[in-house]
C-alpha cells in the first residue's frame, strides 16, 4: 500500500525543481517508493564548506527538500499545500566527495501536520546525517510548479 495521494507516476519532481535552490545544489529525486522518497546530492563546490567537507546547511536543505516533496506527494495537491514548520539535524560524519543519498520516511502523516524522518548516507552506506522535519498542511492549492508555472510576486 502506498503513502502517496493519487497517481504520482506522472509527476516529474526534478523538472519542477528547476530555477530553485534544489537545482542549484544539484539535488535529484532518484526513486519514489511506495513508503519512501529517495534523492541524492553531490558533495562538490556547491555543497561543501571551506574545510572541504559537506556543509551541514546543505544536508539540512537536502532533508527539507525531500520532506517537502514527500509531503507534497502525500496530500491532495488540488486543495492542500505543505510548508516546512520545524527541522532538526544531527550531523554524524563528514563527507568530502562523491554523492550523499537521502531517504525520507513518514513518522506521522496527519490531516494538519506531517513528520518526516530523513536519513542521509554516503556512498558506502554510512550514516552522515539524520534529520526530522515537521510540515504544516494548509488548505490552499499547492503552489509547487515548474519554473514557467510559478506565481510571480
TrEMBL record:
Keyword Hydrolase among record annotations: yes
PANTHER family found in the cross-reference section: 1,4-DIHYDROXY-2-NAPHTHOYL-COA THIOESTERASE 1
Protein name according to UniProt: PaaI family thioesterase
Alphabetized SUPFAM superfamilies for the sequence: Thioesterase/thiol ester dehydrase-isomerase
Family the UniProt entry places it in: Belongs to the thioesterase PaaI family.
Sections of the chain in a coiled coil: none
Swiss-Prot/TrEMBL keywords: Hydrolase
Keyword Zinc-finger listed: no
Pfam families hit by this protein: 4HBT (PF03061)
The Thioesterase domain, residue ranges: 52-129
